[in-house]
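Retro notes (design track)

What went well: tokenization of the new backbones is finally stable.
What didn't: we kept losing track of which sequence belonged to which structure.
Fix going forward: every design gets posted as structure first, then sequence, in one message. First example under the new rule, 162 residues:
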């Protein structure tokens, strides 16, 4: 099933010069970038992205930390499209908790915070966000992109895949 999903390269990924390496991993897998921009996230957008459900699930401290983290520097927002894009992107990205992320995933290869650090401090820089499911992807994509920022084109290998 052809899907679109949101990926955010968070401030630590941008500041460490990992944009190209991260985008390369999605493209190597045959996924297509149909929208991309650099954003200086304000508190309003960060608050909408990290909704109250985060506070209910993980506590207000975690939500506040995530909001501050997302607004601490520029973010690269990306729309990735492809067959089963949501689950494929989640596999490429790796576990939310850096210490649990497998080697070969973006978080497993590039994050520095251990599982113990994250648990102790209720925080950790994990480089990247990827929508968890189709419902979240639709909500997040409409929050980060307008319809005129989504582009259509064919990759040379698409005729072989689709």
């Amino acid at each position: 099933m052809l899907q679109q999903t949101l990926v955010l390269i968070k401030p630590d990924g941008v500041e460490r010069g990992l944009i190209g390496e991260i985008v390369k991993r999605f493209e190597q897998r045959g996924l297509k970038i149909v929208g991309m921009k650099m954003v200086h996230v304000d508190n309003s957008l960060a608050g909408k992205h990290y909704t109250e459900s985060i506070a209910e699930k993980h506590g207000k401290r975690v939500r506040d930390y995530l909001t501050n983290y997302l607004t601490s520097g520029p973010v690269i927002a990306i729309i990735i499209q492809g067959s089963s894009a949501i689950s494929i992107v989640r596999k490429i990205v790796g576990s939310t908790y850096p210490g649990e992320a497998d080697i070969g995933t973006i978080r497993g290869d590039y994050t520095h915070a251990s599982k113990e650090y994250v648990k102790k401090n209720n925080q950790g820089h994990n480089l990247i966000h990827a929508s968890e499911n189709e419902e979240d992807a639709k909500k997040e994509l409409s929050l980060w992109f307008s319809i005129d920022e989504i582009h259509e084109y064919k990759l040379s290998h698409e005729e072989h895949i689709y």
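Added context from the reviewer: The two ends are 10 Å apart (CA to CA).
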